[in-house]
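Subject: Predicted fold for Protein phosphatase 1, regulatory subunit 42, 327 residues

User T.R. writes:
Posting the sequence so we have a shared reference for the thread.
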Amino acid sequence: MIGKLLSPSRPLEFNHRKLLILRGSPCHLPIVCCSEIKCKTDLLSCVDDDLSMCRNLTVLYLYDNQISQICNLGFASNLTNLYMQNNNISCIENLSSLHKLSKLFLGGNSITVVEGLDELKSLKELHVEGQKLPRGEKLVFDPRSISSLSETLCILNISKNNIDEIWDLAPLRKLTHLYATDNQLQDIQEIETVFSQWSQLRLLDLNRNPVCHKPKYRDRLITACRILEDLDGKQINKLSRQFLINWKASKDAKKKLDDGKDIKEQTTNPLTTDFRMGPQHPFAHDRSSSLSKPSEYASPALHFEYKETAEEKRSRGINIPVRTGRL
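User M.O. replies:
I've generated the structure tokens; pasting them so everyone works from the same file.
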């Protein structure tokens, strides 16, 4: 049973159901005033019911334990920070009542699907790095949770999860920091397309992904992420970034101009090409209406010259010499 009490400005720490005072002197304030609690022990396997007394709880540390399920947190409507990394959690659940939660740390668990975050309308940081996944599997993302976080999430850590694509994360347009090291990302075109939609991205870490070895990898990401300040732990020089952006803009403008010239040539020269017969007018293959067209547009197959026979000429009085067979 919890006996001694602590100032609300100091965190409480539980050690196997015993309350330990970390800092400050004990006082006689109700435990309901406590705003921070640490349950730091290797033996804790579930969230203790005794915590329900702490109605003003805003920060809860439950990391480095043996917790297998997220539960008994319905009372913590004021909770803003929840630290549950390095436990045995396999499912993200029972968080729907934590409407004020802004930071959630779940790294080092056994989670295979990022889900159950639909009601966390204030979540700004999500850390799910280094999950203990079954061999050959990767961390996947529930579209409903990602959609719900699209307007609030700013910091995301998905490192060390065998992830090979990021299309599912495209809706997260408010991201400013992404940590995705030690994964299997390799499609530079996909990464460019997704990151170009994240107009607020300032820090990006993709170290130890296959994509890092693609030609022009750094240049392409700098031009895709216009305000990026740090890429893979290296700061981006403003002058270098502006040079690359200007170079890409010039290249795109030239390509657009060349494409426009090609379209203009096709418009002004409508002749189609048959490699067996040479250039032909488009009317040449339209036999159904050839009689209504000018003679120069008529189909070659219907255009011929009529030749009068010798008998017809004689009948009109034209003298035609008769050959006798002698030379």
